[in-house]
Write a structure and sequence with these properties.
The chain is an alpha/beta fold. Helix content is 35%, strand content 17%. The chain contains 9 helices and 14 strands. A hairpin with a 2-residue loop joins strand 2 and strand 3. The protein is globular and about 50 Å long.
Length: 320
């Protein structure tokens, strides 16, 4: 049985940092509800599809935006996830620190894109603030974290341990994971324990061109994800972590559904539902970590599946 984590980063952006107070109401509707001429394809749509297939999702909710726009929008997001009986966990985009209406740190005047740009003491404070905001919004039993843009470092794990958070899913071997300070010289692709925190890294794979990619709805075809899931099971992997976003089923302009990605999502959920005897789709609550003796090589996908995905991606770009 392979443990599968379907993770969704839920965040709101105002498409830039100018006039954000004016832009926010429309941005909230786009990034959370995703209204289009054919219906809504935002967070509620994702929640409903998971519910229809009886699958558990992990929703990493970003709360620091509420220090600018108030707690009601955050409570609305948390309420949507909790009403669907899904798991709310903590996400943190440090770009909001200098936008807060109240200082979050002694040095809050400059924009720092990644959490790794903050000291451990600052990270401890930010994680504590973000966790408190999420709890005030109605979240319960938060025990997992993901840094925005995967921009964490080893200090982040110390900050999580200091705040009583046992699990992290910020390590991405295809992005900033290798220089995070976590297991230097080793690409982490399976769960590990580090500084009192269990790290559940993004699942990555070598595609047919040799490129290292992480498994994300907008970046992988369904054929690739299906093949990788079977490969992970057959080779005895302990976990498989998939990434999505609350607005990922929309095109970049957020004004219509991305039909290719919507179909991928529907196919993936149907596949996991049908094969629940092989794949345990779960969250981090109640998780008893299983750690490998050593880190294996990344999974691999054949060239023909890479070619099919490239055709799909070209089609998506044509109809943005």
């Amino acid at each position: 049985m392979l443990e599968v984590f379907f993770t969704v980063d839920v965040e709101v952006w105002c498409d830039g940092w100018h006039n954000i107070d004016e832009k926010f109401p429309d941005a909230f509707r786009k990034y959370i509800y995703g209204p289009t001429a054919k219906g809504d394809f935002g967070l509620p749509y994702t929640l409903n599809v998971l519910k229809d297939h009886g699958l558990r999702g992990v929703f990493f909710v970003e709360p620091l935006f509420s220090t600018r726009f108030g707690e009601q929008p955050l409570a609305e997001i948390v309420g949507l996830v909790r009403e669907s009986n899904q798991e709310v966990q903590l996400h943190l985009h440090s770009e909001w620190v200098d936008e807060s209406r109240v200082p979050l740190l002694a040095d809050s005047g400059t924009k720092r894109q990644y959490l790794r740009y903050f000291t451990m003491e600052e990270q401890i404070a930010l994680v504590a603030t973000a966790g408190r905001l999420l709890k005030q919004a109605g979240a319960r039993d938060v025990n997992a974290f993901r840094a925005g843009n995967f921009g964490f470092n080893r200090d982040t794990l110390g900050a999580l341990a200091a705040n009583g958070i046992r699990f992290d899913s910020s390590y991405n071997a295809s992005l900033m994971g290798p220089d995070s300070g976590v297991m230097p010289g080793v690409s982490v692709v399976e769960p590990i324990e580090c500084d009192g925190v269990y790290e559940y890294p993004m699942t990555v794979f070598r595609d047919g061109t040799g490129s290292l990619r992480h498994t994300q709805l907008t970046s992988c075809s369904f054929r690739e994800m299906k093949g990788l899931l079977w490969q992970a099971l057959e080779t005895g992997r302990h976990s498989f972590v998939i990434l999505s976003h609350g607005s990922e089923l929309l095109n970049p302009a957020k004004n219509r559904a991305d039909d290719v990605v919507v179909k991928r999502f529907q196919q993936l959920c149907a596949f996991l539902d049908k094969n629940r005897d092989s794949f345990h789709v779960r969250g981090f609550r109640g998780l008893k970590p299983k750690l490998p003796q050593q880190q294996p090589a990344p999974l691999a996908s054949p060239i023909w599946k890479t070619g099919v995905r490239m055709i799909e991606q070209a089609y998506r770009r044509k109809y943005r």
